[in-house]
Amino acid sequence: MGGGWFLQNSKLYKNNDTLILEDCPSLPTGNDFKYKETPWTIEKIYFSRGHVKIKKTINRGIRHYNEQEIEKVLREYEKIKPSHSNLDDNSMVLVDKLFIATISGSEKARKYFENVPKKFAGLDGFGGEYYENMKDKLLQWDKK
């Protein structure tokens, strides 16, 4: 299985005179929703006229889901009955898939993603923190 909440790596490398730092959470962007390290933010650190410059961007090249994948995610969400418990591992995997479906352009996935707190009434502790983290990522994504 795997989920973005278990492991988050960063990659650091040099390209000419620029130091590049990529924040790479594990997201379900592989084939058949497999988790893989996916650059989320990219920071470029370089000198310009004797001053250190830092340019941080969101990776807009993340693999998007196709229509069939989005439909599969939506059906998965629709099958879940409302719960009074917190997000478990399977629910967090679904949050990740809804997130990717949302940035893939699905308005319905966005509504479902935003409805997660109502679907899982016990959003506190780690599950709540995880959902808030993914909400923050979506806010970052929405800032063009």
Q: Could you explain how this protein is built, in words?
A:
By secondary structure, this protein is α+β, with helices and mostly antiparallel strands. It has 2 domains: 8-58; 67-142, no CATH class. The chain has 5 helices and 5 strands; from the N terminus they run βββββααααα. It has helices spanning 67-79, 89-103, 107-114, 116-119, 125-142, and strands at 8-15, 18-27, 36-37, 41-48, 51-58.
In short:
The chain has five helices and five strands, in the order E-E-E-E-E-H-H-H-H-H.
Tally of DSSP β-strands: 5
**Which stretches are poorly predicted, pLDDT < 50 over at least 5 residues?**
1-7
Element-by-element helix/strand order: EEEEEHHHHH
Q: How much is the average pLDDT? A: 89
Silhouette? elongated
- From the structure provided, what is the oligomeric state, counting identical versus distinct chains? single chain
Rg, rounded, reads: 17 Å
The share of residues in extended strands comes to 25-35%
Q: How would you sum up the major sheet?
A: 5 strands, antiparallel
Helical content band: 40-55%
Tell me the structural class: alpha+beta
- Number of helical stretches of at least 4 residues: 5
| End-to-end distance | 32 Å
Q: Please tell me the total number of domains.
A: 2
SSE topology:
Blueprint: E1 8-15, E2 18-27, E3 36-37, E4 41-48, E5 51-58, H1 67-79, H2 89-103, H3 107-114, H4 116-119, H5 125-142
Antiparallel strand pairs: 1-2, 2-3, 2-4, 4-5
